[in-house]
Description:
Largest sheet: 3 strands, antiparallel
Oligomer: single chain
Number of domains: 1
Number of helices: 2
Amino acid sequence: xxxxxxxxxxxxxxxxxxxxxxxxxxxxxxxxxxxxxxxxxxxxxxxxxxxxxxxxxxxxxxxxxxxxxxxxxxxxx
Length: 77
């Protein structure tokens, strides 16, 4: 895969674990992209690799929307 991006969030371990749990089903791979979500050194890292820039952009945008939705839900609780 030629294109890659990393989304790095500095958040508490508890919140990072909750996000990983919420995004577990979205952490998939197909023939155009792969993604991996993990915690390292107190940071939540979402690593995305894609064959083309369109797949990379759409995957990054999807994860950003998921993270925004999670934040909105947390703010409502």
